[in-house]
Design a protein that fits this description.
mainly beta; three-stranded antiparallel β-sheet; 277 residues; Immunoglobulin-like; 22% strand; 6% helix; elongated; 2 domains
Length: 277
């Protein structure tokens, strides 16, 4: 049985296309029913008749073919999407090659992990940054209207350092955690005497202390820098064959998800970069 109408007006009540007594609770029934509402129990298609070849979803919206609007859906108001396990993506967006699949005019806040696949303009920015100095820029602390720009020191190792002053002592105590952090045989020491020549030398060292020696009866008074290479992660592979940083031999630095990365992966371990013993 079929009916044909030019127009159907439901002034009060509900427009229902469903089995008898299948009115959804959200729309209410009886005295509690919400007027001017609609419910369709099965799949619904809107737009061009041939926009879809099968029932892909409960609601399918395609471009209309009456007045030629350029969008299938235009929403004025807030949206909420509550995904389930029906598919692997709660929201899947794709677009033509000549347009951005997703364009956001405003800030984006994400509580979970973001994987951009290192593609497009963002990847280009990253690759450029890899080839440039690593600067930081801040308001000048003492000159109004000026800024201050410094850059990180670069070197062929993952290094750490401590610095300070030793006076009237012959031992530099290293941080207690250094024994678990650095290679003992990568340690180097720089000493800068204060006030007078003292002929200070490094007598010996380990991963806990630096032992100093000076002229007899001359108290030690100097600044020091102690450098070492970290051992809790694999050494840098400083030279490798490739065209981009994605060709770095250890995939833990680029292609493996953050929560699965192992920077001590034995499959990519090499000789430490600095040895001093």
């Amino acid at each position: 049985m079929a009916f044909h109408f030019d127009e159907v007006h439901v002034y009060e009540g509900q427009h229902l296309v469903c089995q008898e007594k299948s009115v959804p609770k959200a729309l209410g029934v009886g005295p509690q029913k919400v007027n001017h509402t609609s419910y369709i129990q099965g799949n619904t298609q809107i737009g061009k008749v041939d926009a879809f070849s099968s029932a892909n979803a409960t609601l399918m919206v395609g471009r209309e073919d009456t007045i030629g609007t350029d969008r299938s859906v235009y929403v004025n108001g807030n949206q909420y999407i509550n995904g389930d396990s029906g598919t692997s993506n709660a929201l899947y967006v794709t677009g033509g090659g000549s347009v951005d699949s997703l364009y956001v005019d405003g800030d984006v806040y994400v509580t979970g992990r973001v994987d951009c696949g290192n593609k497009g303009r963002l990847a280009s920015r990253f690759s450029s940054a890899d080839a440039r100095p690593k600067p930081f820029d801040l308001k000048h602390p003492s000159r109004e209207g000026y800024r201050l720009r410094y850059a990180c020191i670069e070197g062929p190792e993952v290094g750490v350092y401590v610095r300070g002053r030793v006076k009237d002592e012959k031992v530099i105590d290293l941080p207690k955690y250094w024994k678990d952090l650095v290679h003992e045989d990568s340690i180097t020491v720089q000493l800068q005497p204060i006030g007078a020549h003292q002929d200070i030398i490094v007598e010996k060292w380990d991963d806990e202390k630096i032992y100093l020696q000076s002229k007899e009866e001359v108290p030690i008074n100097c600044f020091y820098h102690v450098y070492a290479e970290r051992k809790d992660i694999n050494p840098l592979i400083t030279e490798y064959e490739g065209e981009t940083c994605d060709d770095y031999p250890d995939p833990n630095h680029h292609s493996i998800p953050d929560d699965e990365r192992n920077y001590k992966d034995p499959n990519y371990a090499t000789e430490q970069n600095t040895k001093t013993k």
